[in-house]
Amino acid sequence: MTAPGAPSSAAVAAELLDLGTATVYEASRQECFLPYTLRPAWPGARVAGPALPVRTAPADNLPLHIAVEAARPGQVLVVAAQGEPCGYWGEVLTVAAQQRGIRGLVIDGGVRDTAALAALDFPTFSTSVAVRGTVKDDPGTVGAPILLGGVPVRDGDLVLADPDGVLVLPAERVDAVLAAARQRQADERRYLDRIRQGELTLDIYRLRDRYAAT
């Protein structure tokens, strides 16, 4: 429940996304990044929202159809699909997801119909783009916690994804990370001002003693 006068969860997610995954990751002081192989399926994709974790059997997208029904509006599907280069997701599931208010998709596996995903403005991050088909036999899991690249993903944790990477922040740490990310951004702006005035990063970051020691 959001306290009176406090920013909404959607507003917090949007601000963190504006701060950017690089700044948020550094501010978080935790290993919250998903595998670097997760890349935008189309240029400019970016998304933030609460996670709905999904696990599939290799080359089986039945759990994604189930997740479209189960998801709450505003959620981002985060799918452990075993890295399989298959077209788990495409235009049909995207339209179905948008009808349910799903905000985006992060999948350790393949997607297809990328031109349609871009035209529909559906933020999608995947480890491959692949036309190979899938079966629909194993329901997998929807909503149960998963591990993706060693990072735990729970229902309601916050997903941030932009061209620099994908993060998952534990729900209980979001407010603290936001405060730290705001401070980091303010510090970096001051550093940039000093650099433009002629200072060196060796001095700003107090690295000269380390440099001299070598």
From TrEMBL:
Function: Catalyzes the aldol cleavage of 4-hydroxy-4-methyl-2-oxoglutarate (HMG) into 2 molecules of pyruvate. Also contains a secondary oxaloacetate (OAA) decarboxylase activity due to the common pyruvate enolate transition state formed following C-C bond cleavage in the retro-aldol and decarboxylation reactions.
TM segment ranges: none
E.C. number(s) listed in UniProt: 4.1.1.112, 4.1.3.17
Species of the source: Plantactinospora endophytica
Reactions this protein catalyses: 4-hydroxy-4-methyl-2-oxoglutarate = 2 pyruvate; oxaloacetate + H(+) = pyruvate + CO2
Protein name listed in UniProt: Putative 4-hydroxy-4-methyl-2-oxoglutarate aldolase
Family named by the database record: Belongs to the class II aldolase/RraA-like family.
Cofactor: a divalent metal cation
Entry-linked CDD domains: RraA_family
Oligomeric and partner information: Homotrimer.
